[in-house]
Amino acid sequence: MKVELHLHTSRYSACATDKPADVMRELIDCGYGAVFLTEHDAVWGDWELADLQMSFPEIRIYPGMEIALGADKSQHLLVLGTGDRTYLQLPTAEDIILRARREGHLTVLAHPFRWPDSPPVVLAGPVYPDAVELCTCNHTGLMTDMSRRAGRRLDIPVVNAGDVHALSFVNRYWIETQDTPTGPDDVRRAVLSRLYSNCTPSSREAGDRGISRSADGRNCD
User: Fold this and answer.
1) Cα distances (Å, whole numbers) of residue 158 to 30, 46, 174, 185, 214
2) Eight-class DSSP state of 205
3) N or C: which end of the chain has fewer CB within 10 A?
4) Cβ(144)–Cβ(119) under 8 Å?
5) 60-62/34-36 β-pairing
6) Residues 207, 170: contact at Cβ < 8 Å?
7) 152 with 194: CB under 8 angstroms?
8) Phi-psi region of 11 (alpha: psi -120 to 50; beta: other; left: phi over 0)
9) Contact between residue 113 and residue 146 where contact means Cβ atoms under 8 Å apart
10) Which domain holds residue 152?
11) Assigned domain for 220 exists
12) Rounded CA gap, 213 and 210, in Å?
């Protein structure tokens, strides 16, 4: 299944340009089977999510959030599979990661090397996120290489994600799971077990569909 792990809409993210319905239609047209809504320091209400899901049964729509951390708010952590807004009140990345781990939610460090002047302190340990983003619409090639090296050094998965803020960001970077997940916990298990592919349009066209079982993101162009 084709999965988008990191996506914003104009409903709750000021930096996003397109409405939720327009983004869902674009994802469906591009063959996505699942998406996590990860608004900046905000979550969708249960009734809102249910309403959106009812309008677009062709795609599984899962809750999530992107939490800004650190004094300069340059560290961004995705918590995937929950809309519990109390996560937004936790003081440190360690608190967030440990709670998410207990509750079975996937944590991903978003674009960790996007701001060179703000090194990703989340990767300093002693508690690490489940995964780090590899290729995104907000990572250069050098940043991607730095993420790949960090994943190898820490032995944690690296994942492609669109970091979608506009329709033009859709279908550029994503993961594909080996099995069809029936819920967000299945996506977490696929990532932790490394039973997924890091994909781009060109990698799909080339037939590079092998399942990634290591942290090196070999399918990323």
Assistant:
1) 23, 29, 11, 18, 9
2) H
3) C
4) no
5) parallel
6) no
7) no
8) alpha
9) yes
10) 2-205
11) no
12) 9
The whole-model pTM stands at: 0.91
CB atoms within 10 A of CB 53: 14
Tokens 């729509």, residue located: 61
Residue type, 173: Y
Q: How many domains does the chain have?
A: 1
Tokens of 151: 């994943």
Q: For the segment 143-188, what is each residue's pLDDT rounded down to a tens digit?
A: 999 999 999 999 999 999 999 999 999 999 999 999 998 999 999 9
Q: CATH number of the domain that 201 lies in? A: 3.20.20.140
Q: How many CB atoms lie within 10 A of CB 148?
A: 19
Sign for the pseudo-dihedral over CA of 141, 114, 209, 206: negative
Per-residue pLDDT tens digits for 91-138: 999 999 999 999 999 999 999 988 776 667 788 889 999 999 999 998
